[in-house]
Batch of 3 targets.
Target 1
Amino acid sequence: MEISAGQVKELREKTGLGMMICKQALIDANGDMNLAIENLRKQGQTTAAKRAGKSVKEGKVTIVSDSSASVVFEVNSETDFVARNEDFISFVDNLGTILLENKPADLESAKKLTSPLFGGLSVETRLTELIGKIGENITFRRYKKMDVNPAEERIFSYLHGNGRIGVLVKLKADKALDSEAMASLGKDLAMQVAAANPIAVDRESVSSEVIAKEKEIYQTQAQSSGKPEKIWSKIVDGKLEKFFQEFTLIEQAFIRNPDVNIKSRIQETEKETGASIKVLSFVRLELGAEE
């Protein structure tokens, strides 16, 4: 299979590896980008898992909220110049209002919404008009809605870098929902998700498919480590434990005090408020990143 220069360039940007290594990885994977990254991880040549979501797309991530729900969405442009254009900003602002008013179930439903804010046009039709006016491709790429039960839940949000990363975190508690301590915790957790990019709330929430794939990678690494076969299972278990500590929110080291983990940070607020607190879910959108 012939590998294009564009494919090699993309893999280099995602892994930071040399051209020939990337080209060979793509050849071995028959052009499958994700498989190439996975194989490179098995070879221990890259930290691709941490960098594979990076891209150069511009635009803005936006968060809007009311008492019953919060919405985070992403609109992309080709250049940062267009992302600062008044027409682009106006479109994003109006889109946020429309999404919060209607709270559609998914992205496709959101694109079909109509509103007086867009002259009675649908979101996708207004977007097509905007593209024609600005002369640059613009996409309404992602949309996530998080509902809340006001009696026992609160959603906390954080927007980083003027719309580069948007985070929603939902907490459940039996008291002190509107206390300063709970607000401080919510902010800390949202910032944690933005900075540390966990894949799940806790290890129980990590899918069996992800765990199986990590074990496969660690098994390959152990087999090629030169260490005795009898300790391979211990190596795999140790690496999996480290994976949970690095990629699940509750077990991550707290970014503002790495000597404690997030579970300890939550327990601190529980002690201060007397509340029982649980992280229910989170959403993180990073501008231009792949899901």
Target 2
Amino acid sequence: MDYNGEKMSDAEGARTRDQLNKFVKLTHRPPHGETLAGHRTPPARSGHRCVADNTNLYVFGGYNPDYDESGGSENEDYPLFRELWRYHFATGCWQQIQTDGYMPTELASMSAVLHGNNLLVFGGTGIPFGENNGNDVHVCNVKYKRWSLLNCRGKKPNRIYGQAMVIINGFLYVFGGTTGYIYSTDLHRLDLTTREWIHLKPNNPPDDLPEERYRHEIAHDGQRIYILGGGTSWTSYPLDKIHAYNLETNSWEEITTKPHDKIGLYSGILLPGDAIAVYKFETVSSSATDII
């Protein structure tokens, strides 16, 4: 499947496989080394969220404790970044987007997803971390550059951060996260038409649920939601087995992943159509995970 959920041709699929394990550093300069007056790049940060369409990469929020690096006296939200940036793939230029409306103040470890022209942001934490959390859905229309609060009803998730979310067939699914004290294995669903939250209760015994976690990622193929990585303050979860939520049966399944035949020490899972591959590389002294 491609980004839009359409089946790729065999040739396109082969090219996709050839790109696995190949990294390309994107320059922030326009072609031929030209620079545009007034164009800046976003300061270094962590805890931000990135989403993309075919034209732009959007970067929202984040944290940097370095006073000078995060903007000094000009950054009223230090050590957080209450800002939205856009990177245009064709020109290689960054632009800080000036928006109207109320931008959320929970600016670290929120979850974000791009749905058409709408950037949806849920949860996250502010200062002090773990004590100033959110559970609202904020929407920024990136075409008209305006923020709004999505007024919802029903059983909202707790005020959490570090959760992950995805939109499937008009529903927003949110899994996991933490209050700063308690880690979650909850799965919530928001109907984007009626704006009603429900807390899903999968048909599994408690021992068959995914482990509680935060800072994980989510992928889906239209039939299942795959939970990738994450952990707690005392552990991180390996990728040799992952959990998948079956939308049709309302149940969790455990999937054993298979190593990629070209990458050796990496292990991964290829979803139908090679939509996503997850790798874990291990050495004697350390391990690292990458999502390609």
Target 3
Amino acid sequence: MNNGPRRCAVLGKPIAHSLSPLLHEAAYRALGLDGWSYRRIEMDEDGLAAFLGSLDGGWAGLSLTMPLKRTIQPHGAPANLWARELGVANTAVFADGTTKLYNTDVYGIARAFSHAAAARGIQPAANRSAVILGNGNTATSALAAYVMMGGVTHVTIAARHPQRNPGLAEVGARHGVDVTAVAFDDAHATALLADADLVVNTIPANGADAVARRLAEAGGAVRGTLLDVVYDPRPTELMKVWERLGGVALGGEEMLLYQAVAQVLLMTGLAADDDFDAVDARAPHDALERAMREALEEAL
């Protein structure tokens, strides 16, 4: 681990809302990395190549958010399982003249569910059913997280344009998971949500409010765990309805925390390339997680 001055940043557009600097700076303090810094840089797809070409040896890594998770691919080599398979990376690490690309979103989602189950003393069952709301890049990572967790045999994708991302079914087929797609307004969508063991909402902002209203109007109980990747507003309308109907609801800050823990460990050289290919591939870094969680909770 290099304790000298190193620079990192999160890139995307828009970026002003990002809590990544707060998390990474807390991690540097916990690790005693006084010379490390991390900031937000607004960047679109057209500007990425020139920006990467301007970086000097003082840069350790980058976090990538929308719309750059696929755009970064030609500029580095995928270094972990999910970056290779999905073609989506949220992390770039600069080391020894190379640029390594990682997907830690998959780990972040799986670890959020795993931590919630452990905290409640729940042993995950086999043959679980799952739903994903939305079918963009984060939905692809959510599907991979279900694969990583194991025991999920069927996933339903509910989206405004359900046939827009056929690659989701292909990912499922490679891992023995049956994937079907339905429209948000499908007559069976609400029942599928209520019966699901696991649900991930990937629709940004208030996009899932209509789903929340339909669940509330149906009035039946839900039995699964929801992870809503949105963390502003917090809690979302979907989370509030889900808990009122008897389910467990996790906010997007849980995914944000765990994907950032993985990023920090990769950027600082404290983790191997494959450490986050499985939810339990390495022991949790408890002190680091605690410091980052405390900083996040103070901000929220």
